[in-house]
Amino acid sequence: HFDLRFAPTQYDDVEHDIRHALRGELPVYQGHLRVAHMQSSGQAAWAEPAKLLATWANLFKLQIKYTQAEYDKIRETDHQALLADMLGRVAGLP
User: Fold this and answer.
1) Contact, 74 vs 22, CB < 8 A?
2) Engineering a disulfide at 20: which of 8, 25, 78, 85 sits with its beta carbon 3.0 to 4.6 angstroms away?
3) Cβ(15)–Cβ(65) under 8 Å?
């Protein structure tokens, strides 16, 4: 589920992935999948001060929600998954 405290910006997606990564569930990104977003954020938010402030507030909430140790844990888990994938691919080479 998505944490509504980060809506309507894209940070609800990011926070969702961070939560799962902390449980060892790495997100899988599909580069060919198109997603229509209901709310404009990012560059589109600059046109409206209220949207811009909401975007900045959500980013701040995301930055302080997790500790450095939690981010380090995610980084290590990601590194181990990448290494295992790479070694598996190399082992399959002729």
Assistant:
1) yes
2) 25
3) yes
Helix axes 68-91, 11-22, angle to 10 degrees: 70
Which residue's entry shows tokens 């811009």?
52
- pLDDT per residue as tens, the chain (94 positions): 888 888 777 788 899 999 999 999 988 878 888 877 665 555 666 677 888 888 889 999 999 999 999 999 999 999 999 999 999 999 999 8
Q: Do 66 and 6 touch, CB atoms closer than 8 A? A: no
Give Cα 56 to chain centroid, integer Å. Answer: 16
CA dihedral angle for residue 12, residue 18, residue 20, residue 21, rounded to 10 degrees: 160
Asked if residues 66 and 11 have their Cβ atoms less than 8 Å apart, the reply is no
CA 39-71-11 angle, 5° bins: 5
At 34, list the tokens.
């198109």
pTM for the full predicted model: 0.72
